[in-house]
Amino acid sequence: MHHPVQDELLRELKSLLPARQLITDPLRRLAWGSDASFYRLVPQLVVVVESEAEVQQVLRACVRLGLPVTFRAAGTSLSGQALTDSVLVLLGDGWRHIEVAPDAATITLGPGVIGAAANRALAPFGRKIGPDPASIDAAMIGGIVANNASGMCCGTAQNSYRTLAGVRLVLADGSVLDTRDPASRGAIARRRPDLVQGLAELAREVRADEALSARIRHKYRLKNTTGYSLNALVDFHDPIDVLAHLVIGSEGTLAFISELDLHTVPDLAHKASALLLYAQLETACRAVVALKATPVAAVELLDRASLRSVQDHAGMPPALAALPDDAAALLVEVRGETAAALELRLTAVCLALQGLPTVTPVQFTRDPQAAQALWNVRKGIFPAIGAMRPVGTTVIIEDVAFPIEQLAAATIDLQRLLRDFGYAEAVVYGHALDGNLHFVFTQDFGRAEEVDRYRRLMEAVCELVVQRYDGSLKAEHGTGRNMAPFVEREWGAQATGVMRRIKALFDPQGLLNPGVILNPDPQVHLKNLKPLPATDSFVDPCIECGFCEPTCPSRGLTLSPRQRIIGWREMARLQAEGGH
Hints:
By secondary structure, the protein is α+β, with helices and mostly antiparallel strands. The chain has helices spanning 4-14, 26-31, 52-65, 115-122, 141-146, 160-163, 182-191, 193-208, 210-219, 231-235, 239-247, 281-292, 304-310, 339-353, 368-379, 381-388, 407-420, 448-468, 487-491, 493-506, 561-576, and strands at residues 22-23, 45-49, 69-72, 87-91, 98-100, 106-109, 127-129, 164-171, 176-178, 255-266, 270-278, 298-303, 328-336, 394-401, 427-431, 436-443.
C-alpha cells in the first residue's frame, strides 16, 4: 500500500480479519490483476472474504475512506469486469453452500458455487440451473448472475434474470437485504428510503413513458447485457423486485450477492445431436429460421473458418475438410422427456429442414459419447484459436446479437468487416436461435498502430450492430470496460441517463467497481491492456481463461497455473525491458 488512505484501510482491516486474508505482496497482487479478458489492473490490496459479516466490514471501511472496491468470483469474465487498481474483494472457500429444495424446483446457492457443481447437485432430480455459459465448469454463481451469463441453450427464457427466485444482498453501505424475507424487505425500505422510494419513482417514470418502455421491451427481444437490466423497471412493480432484478447483470457495480435462490429447469434425459453441413452460409441461416419454430433445444452456427480450426479434431466428420469457403454448419440438439417424445421432436425438426439441401445427409446421433464429442469441439473453438495465435498476441472473443430474421445478412456483413480490417484469421460462430454471434480474432496490443486498428474495428462493429441492425453490442459476456464507451451509442441518451440514476441510487459515492458498465472515458477500452510477452513455448499458448483452476491441486495452497503464468510473463516483460 502506497497511499495514506490505503494504509489506513489496511491497518483497520488487520484488526478485523486474519492476516492470511489480506494480500499485499507484489507477486500475488499481480496474479489477481488479470482475468480472462485482455485487460490488467493490479490491485493495491486483495481481501479474501469468508462471510457476509466480513463483506460488510470491508465495504463500510472502504466507503468511510472513499476507496473503490471490486468483487471477484472465478475471474472468467471476458470484458474486464473483475479488475481494479484499488481494493479487490475475493471470494474465499466459505461461499460454496448448496441446498436443493425438496421438490428440486429451486436451489439455494452461495456465490462461490461453480455452475457445474450446482448442476451435479440437481442431476439426480432431472433438473439443472437455467444459465449455461461455456465457462460453467469454472465460473461461479456469483459471477454468472452478476453478468447475467447465458449460453447455448438457455436463451433469454432461462437466464439468471428470468429464473431468479430470491436473493440476499449486501448494499454499498453494508446494509443487508434478503428479498426472500418479508421482514428484511420492510426493514430495508425503512433504512434506505432513498434507494427503495427512488427506484419506485424511477420505475413509475419509465412505465409512464410509453416510447421508452416500448424501446426497453424491444431491446430485450434479443439477448442483451449492454448496460443495466432496464427491463426490471417495466417487468416489476414492487421496488424490491425491481432492485433485485437490477442487480442481475450489474457486474458488481450495485451490490454484493451473498446468496440466491434460482428456479431450476428440466434437464431432459433423452438427447440427440447432429452436425448439419451446408455449402452456403445463407442456407444455414435459412435453416436456423426454420428451426426456430420447432421443439429444438440448441442450434449453434459455425462459419467455415471456425470449422477449419477444429476439422482435424477427434469426432469431426471427414467431409469438413472438403467444404467450400462459403460453407457453414449447424450443431443441433433435440431433447425429450422420453425416447418416444424425442422421436416425435426429431421428426418435427427433420420436416422443418426439408428443402434446405445439406452437403451430407441429416443424421442425428443418440450416442452420448458421440454427441458430447461434437459439443466439446464447439466449446473448444475459443481455446483452439487462442492456442494457435502468434506469440505476443491476445485472442479476443466479441459477443453481439442480431434479429434472427437478418442473421444471414448480418453474418456476411460481419465477416466482410473483419476481412476489411485485416483480421483474416477471424472466426464467427454462436447461438443461432438467439441471433447471438461470437467472433474471435487475434490482436497485437504491443504496437500503437495495432491498437488503433482495433479501435477502428470496434467503431465499425458498433456502426454495424447498432445502426444497421439495431442489435446488441453485448449479448451475454457483460459490458465491462470493453463496451462501456458504447453503452450510450446503443441505448441512447435517455435510457443511459436512467442507468446513471440507478447507479447513483445504489452507490452514491460511485465506489463499487467504478468504470465498469458506465464510464465517461471514450477510450477506456483501449487502456490497461494486458501484456503477453513470449516466455516459453509450453506456456505461450495460455490465454489466461482460468478454466484450469477449479481442478488444480495447488489451488488455495499457492499460485494457480494461470497465476504462475501471469508472473512468468511479467518477469519476461521486465527482462525484455532491461529490468530485474
